Amino acid sequence: MQKFDNLIVGAGLAGVWMAFRFMQENKTFVLLDLKDENNSSRVAAGIYNPLLAKRQKVSYNAKNLYPNLYSSYHELEVLLHQKFCHRHQVAYIIENLRELNDWASLSEAEWFSDFVMVKNERIADQVISDFGYIDILDSGWVDIPLFLDSFIANIPSPNLFFNQMFDDNNLIVNNDNFQYNDFTFKNVVFCQGTGIDQNKFTSNIRLKPAKGEILTIESEEHISDMIPQNGVFLLPISNNKYRVGSNFTWNKLDNLPTEEAKLEIIQKLCKWYKAPFEVTNQVAGVRPSSLDRRPILGRLDCHPNAFILNGFGSKGVSHAPYYSKMLSRFIYDNGMIDEEVDVKRFI
Ligand SMILES: Cc1cc2nc3c(=O)[nH]c(=O)nc-3n(C[C@H](O)[C@H](O)[C@H](O)COP(=O)(O)OP(=O)(O)OC[C@H]3O[C@@H](n4cnc5c(N)ncnc54)[C@H](O)[C@@H]3O)c2cc1C
Known about the structure:
Elements: E1 2-9, H1 13-24, E2 29-32, H2 40-43, E3 47-48, E4 51-52, E5 57-58, H3 62-65, H4 69-80, E6 85-86, E7 90-93, H5 97-106, H6 110-113, E8 116-119, E9 133-136, E10 140-142, H7 144-153, E11 160-162, E12 172-173, E13 178-180, E14 183-190, E15 210-218, E16 227-230, E17 232-238, E18 241-245, H8 259-270, E19 278-287, E20 296-299, E21 306-310, H9 316-332
Parallel strand pairs: 1-2, 1-14, 2-11, 7-16, 14-21
Antiparallel strand pairs: 3-10, 4-5, 6-10, 7-9, 8-9, 12-13, 13-14, 15-18, 15-19, 16-17, 17-18, 20-21
The structure holds flavin-adenine dinucleotide.
């Protein structure tokens, strides 16, 4: 029976970052995932943005997550010889004079000044932005499917990837190891996103998943390399092609695109985007959001060597590098898990 240090279940952002962290610790792993184009990581726009501009707040733990985010992905770009992380600034469109005044003073405050620059100019002719916009620093986007596929295609031996379903009934739990098919493992890490409830080892942990949809549009106009955003974002992905989204719904949590979401997204876009466009594609997925909107990581109660990394909600790109590192340090280097994100709060 072949021995590995870790079994990782799920190869979305959480599982792949976990695998990379184990490589950095010189620990071996087997990564399991039944690839599905509608998984949250493969549907997501991949935008990272430290600001909740509408709510005039900095996002959770922004000071730790964002300043090194690009370099974390870039390290993997170099390793994999592939470009998937793009520094395109998110530009929040200021709606009115009151908001402009608010931002003029907020941008001076210590907790915003690292991330925000108020610009008194239009984004582009086709983007209604008469009150200017906020240039959000440390923002951009990751082509997540390209990142995941590049990583999986280049997993160095002796580590393994299997495109197959994990069946919790086949995991044999011993005192000091786990057995799955023909392998034994010291640890198991569950990174299953919304699949959490189909696994008896994690099904006692509740998520509050949120469905979201994204359109692809084509427009003759080239606006800019920024990502304008207000209500929805307009993400340039290639010549005249953009992704637009997203919305949030908490019922009917399936991966099927709906006409309601399409109309909602178009309506929000048309509030500030003036050029004609055509919708060429629509996708839907479900975000693995937690009840308190914080990530979920740490040791499970079923076994001292069983762990979880989940609960990334709508922030997988920015959460995965930081929290996978926190978990690998916890497993291997006596590191601590922050109380606010520790799975203990749910079990
Ligand atoms: C419409 C939409 C837009 C989004 N936009 C953004 C964005 O712009 N920026 C951002 O940061 N985040 C965004 N997100 C959120 C982001 O997608 C998630 O935070 C992130 O992808 C979660 O990653 P994960 O690895 O935890 O889960 P997932 O991506 O769901 O991965 C879990 C994996 O586990 C596998 N799995 C589960 N059960 C099993 C099993 N039994 N056997 C084998 N494999 C299994 C699944 O196949 C899946 O691949 C968006 C999400 C949606 C739906």
